Amino acid sequence: MNLSPRRLSARLTSIAVALAVALAPVAAEAARSEKASLPLVRDAEIEALIGDYARPILKAAGLSRSGIEIVLVNSGSFNAFVAGRRIFVNTGAITATETPNQLIGILAHEIGHLAGGHQQRLRQQLERAKTIAIVAGLLGAGVAVAGASSGARGATQAGAGLMAGGGALARRGLFSYQRGEESTADRAALTYLRKTGQSGKGLLETFETLDRNSLFAGGRSGNYLSSHPLPRERIAALKQVARESPDFDRPDSPALAQRHDLARAKIAAYTGGASEDRRLFSRNPRGLAALYGDAIATHLSGSPATALQKIDALIEAQPNSPWFHEMRGEILMNSGRWQESAAAFSKAVKLDKSGSGLLKAQVGQALVIGGDRSQMDKAVRLIQSGLQSDPVNAVAYRFLAMAYGHLGDVGRAELATAEGYWHAGSFRQAKIFATRAQQKLKSGSPAWLQAQDIISTPIR
């Protein structure tokens, strides 16, 4: 095939556009896969704490009725971000913040992104940046093709420069836009904190820590190629406004500070064991948080009797803590003492003011582990009660399936398995089990229709 430079350039243009269109779904699928593969973690205690932190901020931002969900990510890195109607918080951000106010400041910043509609505008900017990069690349390809055909080496080099320069231009424009949105979210955070009578000092302290650790610094490109303003720039921009608040020097309440430390201790014990717990609370090794982390680490190391003694001592010190009773239930359940475990979880449910569906389901899960068929109807009711307030608890669906299995109700067991897969993001497996469930359920019954909903819902 013999094409003129102009016709060859046009041909390359059409191929590039076709490739861009063809690869768009692939890129979208990759983005979905990355989100689905996030190492998420569920914990009633920590979710209740973060929910209490976020609730007044969401109200101040006018988002209290917007169905915002807070999701914990099992990662030691300091990060929080928003996607859709969700705020993702890394467990590392919780352990790294020494006070509630520091973490509240970070949440206020993320809520600023949500209230400002930054995600939608970022998508528009991404489309714009992609268009700039594609157009510049096509123009560069056209120049390069013409140069190669005519033997003009300089034109070929210019085309290569255009292709590289177009991508850099798009990237710099996008980063500049993102830096502006970050600054806007910072200012919004201070506004929400002031409305709720909270200090902006924690947000400044967090940026000071980031600056010391140089998390956003480094590299010759520095701020120019960064999607975030440098921490020192953020501090300079916010310090005066933060100090103008009458609540700037208001400390966290001792009770809230203790809850924060207990959550940090739990994360430290589960991720780093006793050594991480000791490191985190080296200044107060006999404090309640340090002892809580030690009890959890002892449990995880396979010493249930000693762990039970330690958690019982904490319950004696704070008998109305639902989370100490919950941990007692965990220890007993792993020791095979399922009846005592269910009783401990029941006590936790009664004391829990957040109404956690996770806790409610745990009572039934302990009964399922016991394997006593006479307790399975009760287990089903308890797990279903938990799922009513927390319908995305994939683990609870697995236990519900086991309970139905003990009762010999295979159709409902497979339906529960399908729902568990669905909420875990395994949609194809969910459809397989829903199809199997339908074959055993009465046609047209509520359970049959639930299975049909799963089967007929398209996977995007």
TrEMBL record:
Which InterPro entries has this protein been placed in? Mito/Outer_Membr_Metalloprot, Peptidase_M48, TPR-like_helical_dom_sf
Q: Is Zinc a UniProt keyword of this protein?
A: yes
Cofactor field: Zn(2+)
Task: Identify the Gene3D superfamilies for this entry.
Answer: Metalloproteases ('zincins'), catalytic domain, Tetratricopeptide repeat domain
Origin species: Aurantimonas marianensis
In the record, biological process GO terms are: proteolysis involved in protein catabolic process
Record-annotated Peptidase M48 domain positions: 44-240
Spell out the coiled coil positions from the record. none
PANTHER family in UniProt: METALLOENDOPEPTIDASE OMA1, METALLOENDOPEPTIDASE OMA1, MITOCHONDRIAL
Q: Which GO terms describe its cellular component?
A: membrane
Signal peptide limits: 1-30
Source taxon at top rank = Bacteria
- What is the uppermost EC class here? hydrolase
The entry lists its GO molecular-function terms as: metal ion binding; metalloendopeptidase activity
Which keywords does this chain's UniProt record carry?
Hydrolase, Metal-binding, Metalloprotease, Protease, Signal, Zinc
Q: Look up keyword Chloroplast and say if it applies.
A: no
Q: What is this protein called?
A: M48 family metalloprotease
CDD domains according to UniProt: M48C_Oma1-like
| EC number(s) on file | 3.4.24.-
